[in-house]
Amino acid sequence: MIPVLLADDETLIRSALATMLDLEDDIDVVAHVESGEELLALWRRRVDAGEPVAVAVIDLQMAGIDGVDTAEQILLLTPGAGTMIVTSHGRPGYLKRALTAGVRGFLPKTTPAATLAAVIRTVHSGGRYVDPELAADAISAGDSLLSAREADVLELAADGSSVEEIAQRAHLSMGTTRNYLSSAMAKLGVSNRYEAALKAREHGWI
Questions:
Q1: CA–CA separation, 15 vs 6, rounded Å?
Q2: Which domain holds residue 22?
Q3: Are residues 185 and 102 in the same domain?
Q4: Over the stretch 111-137, which tens digit does the pLDDT of each residue have?
Q5: For the whole prediction, is pTM greater than 0.85?
């Protein structure tokens, strides 16, 4: 059996995924939680208990730490572990960031259950899978001008958050946050962080 841990902050979607995957003869959803923090806690307990390494199926955008950061921390605990991102926001910047982090599966939430199960098997056996449409979009978007941290703070700025709020959510100092925002604005040739976030989003970089 392939043990699977799910993390998604949308209860209905998470429960539906768990139910559908449990119908597969070779997949066992051992737990599903609503945040990256909870998933990491479960993962650490399994590692400490010497249980088989699971495949982590992680929602990209959750409250607290996001899906890619969660996957990165899992991979620090268990290098080479099978981590997958499922998302409603398949922008190219997210895909590139996930692949750089070592995520081995990236697919939209509209993926049929049978395909999701097949990708879990592929990732569990050491393979990779990226949704073809998302991959094509990432290629056409080109390389981002932004560093990973610049993209992070712009993503947080996109909803109109203050510098203080962005700093808190990104776990950065106010000064460092301002530096990242200023650098991103300069690279994108805009006068404020809101324009920078909009331009970066149009290019698929956040």
A1: 9
A2: 2-140
A3: no
A4: 999 999 999 999 999 999 999 988 887
A5: no
